[in-house]
Task: structure prediction
Amino acid sequence: MIERLSSDGPWEDEFGYSRAVLAGDLALVAGCTATVEGKVVHPGDPYEQTRTAFQIALWSLERLGLTRNDVVRTRMYITRAGDSAEVGRAHGSLFQHVRPAATMVVVAGLIDPRMLVEVEVEAYRRTS
Result:
């Protein structure tokens, strides 16, 4: 069984994707940025942008019946290598006790130049 979740984000319909997909016990959350109600929040602040992006991803998981403790993998795409410490600190503030597998990659840019980070989350529903 596959369940698809929409968040009414500005690009979901136009680009044809779901905010999150639950396929059996595996939940995949599409890339999330610090975009709230169609506006990029916390411009210039990689720490707060990271926390906001992960909070959007965690909200999506909660709507699918999973929690932060179910997260098994995260990915962080950052536009400035110098932001890695702040992005990592934000990740740690949310996942220090969960300790998912994590990847951070520097990319050339994101869809809006005010976006400093985009995150992805994968979670696994525990059946026992």
Remarks:
- Residues 33 and 53 are 5 Å apart (CA to CA).
- Helices lie at 12-15, 46-63, 84-95.
- The first helix runs from residue 12 to 15.
- Strands lie at 2-5, 20-23, 26-32, 35-36, 39-40, 71-78, 101-106, 117-124.
